[in-house]
Design goal:
The structure is a single chain. The chain is α/β, with parallel strands linked by helices. The chain has helices at about 40-45, 70-80, 95-105, 105-115, 130-145, 160-180; strands at about 1-10, 15-20, 20-25, 30-35, 55-60, 65, 80-85, 150-155, 180-185, 200. It has one domain: 3-Layer(aba) Sandwich (Rossmann fold), CATH 3.40.50. The chain is about 35% helix and about 25% strand. α3 (about 95-105) packs parallel to α5 (about 130-145). The structure holds adenosine-5'-triphosphate. This is Putative ABC transport system ATP-binding protein.
């Protein structure tokens, strides 16, 4: 589902970041950890096609995404890749439900996912009225609504307490497995190492 070969990225006037080769099959989880500044966010942006690598290859669902032009990349991302950020970036003036329907106007799917993720009673609320853990569950719902084949999660548990951290991470993995999505979690949160065996540390 996801694999990379010889992936590298050079920021203008910066050093070249080189990443170990990685693979993640559908339904599986790959955890990427590493300290501040090692390139976790850069890697996630390369895998999402938000940055073009200066070298190497990223394959998602059989497509070498580094070769796609920007319009085609945007369309590919919308169809195949769901991204979950540490901060949920919801529009404050809209309800949670309205925010989630912006991702895809599919009421049936939204209802089904909200029940699974236990947020159906929160849909009418404004995002700021949700706790951090609830916001993360809403973010996961938003990423899942398009049934992506690749789920990328950037520090999804960093702002959560231990109980919520484990609950959110397990929920994310369970949903990825159920939908046969490959799940890649990029984090400096060492608490997640106990949950996921498939693990690469960047340095
Ligand atoms: N726009 C930029 N221009 C030049 N260098 C950059 C830029 N963005 C990031 N870098 C450098 O690239 C390296 C990797 O940054 P990145 O943000 O990917 O690390 P990270 O592992 O996500 O860090 P953190 O955990 O602190 O968020 C760092 O050395 C950083 O200084």
């Amino acid at each position: 589902m996801l694999y990379t070969r010889n992936l590298a990225y050079a920021y203008p006037n910066g050093r070249t970041l080189r990443f170990p080769d990685m693979e993640c099959a559908e339904g599986n989880v790959l955890l990427i950890t590493g300290g501040s500044g090692v390139g976790k966010t850069t890697l996630l942006h390369l895998l999402a096609g938000l940055l073009k690598p200066s070298g190497g290859e990223v394959q998602v669902a059989g497509t070498a995404i580094q070769s796609l032009k920007s319009g085609a990349m945007d369309a590919f991302r919308g169809k195949h890749i769901g991204i979950i950020y540490q901060q949920s970036h919801f529009i404050a003036a809209l309800s949670v439900k309205e925010n989630l329907l912006l991702a895809k106007k599919d009421h049936t799917r939204l209802l089904e996912l909200s029940q699974k993720l236990g947020i159906q009673s929160l849909l009418h609320k404004k995002p700021t009225q949700l706790s951090q853990g609830e916001q993360q569950r809403a973010s996961i719902t938003r990423a899942l609504i398009q049934s992506p084949q690749l789920l990328l999660a950037d520090e999804p548990t960093a702002s959560l307490d231990d109980d919520n951290c484990i609950a959110v991470a397990k929920l994310l993995a369970a949903q990825a497995a159920e939908q046969k999505a490959a799940l890649l979690i990029v984090t400096h949160d060492n608490r997640l190492k106990q949950l996921f065996a498939n693990h690469i540390t960047l340095s």
